[in-house]
């Protein structure tokens, strides 16, 4: 199962990057700049890391500004891709920890902490039997 998901994650190889790939990359960089800008106030002002982050932001912003703002469709697609990657990574983490991902697995339906225990498997003897 893990090998299947690993091969699925790699996907088809792109023969030559095109305008769509460039737009996606610019959009990702724009989001990265936004995230870095949000993190900047939490860094000690004047510290080496603050200075390096500020310098990086200035240089990246020059190039990002030339690309313009992404459209609503592009933002929606990117958010869907991010959500898909989060779900895939969570599933891969469960598999690698040996928890599986089926019903009754820890964290799955009926296996939530504080909720009812999952139903026993058919081959599991009932208590008192």
Describe how the helices and strands are arranged.
Layout: H1 2-10, H2 19-39, H3 48-67, H4 72-96
In summary, what is this structure?
With 129 residues, this protein is mostly helical.
Structural class: mainly alpha
Q: Name the shape in a single word.
A: elongated
Mean pLDDT: 74
Helix content: 55-70%
- In percent, how much strand structure appears in the residues? under 5%
Instruction: Please trace the helix and strand order, writing H or E for each element.
Output: HHHH
Give the C-alpha Rg.
23 Å
The low-pLDDT segments are: none
Number of strands: 0
Report the biggest beta sheet as strand number plus sense, adding barrel if it closes: none
Distance between the termini: 35 Å
Instruction: Please count the helical segments.
Output: 4
Q: What does this protein look like?
A:
The protein is mostly helical and 129 residues long. It has a domain at 33-67. It is 58% helix and 0% strand. The protein has helices at residues 2-10, 19-39, 48-67, 72-96. Helix 2 runs antiparallel to helix 3 (48-67). The chain is elongated and about 70 Å long. The two termini are 35 Å apart. The mean pLDDT is 74.
Key traits:
129 residues, mainly alpha, elongated
């Amino acid at each position: 199962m893990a090998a299947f998901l690993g091969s699925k994650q790699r996907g088809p190889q792109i023969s030559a990057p095109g305008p769509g790939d460039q737009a996606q990359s610019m959009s990702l960089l724009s989001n990265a700049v936004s995230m870095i800008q949000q993190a900047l106030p939490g860094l000690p002002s004047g510290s080496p890391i603050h200075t390096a982050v500020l310098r990086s932001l200035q240089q990246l912003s020059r190039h990002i500004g030339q690309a313009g703002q992404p459209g609503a469709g592009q933002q929606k697609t990117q958010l869907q891709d991010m959500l898909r990657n989060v779900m895939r990574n969570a599933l891969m983490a469960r598999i690698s920890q040996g928890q599986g991902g089926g019903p009754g697995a820890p964290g799955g339906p009926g296996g939530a902490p504080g909720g009812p225990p999952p139903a026993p498997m058919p081959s599991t003897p009932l208590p008192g039997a």
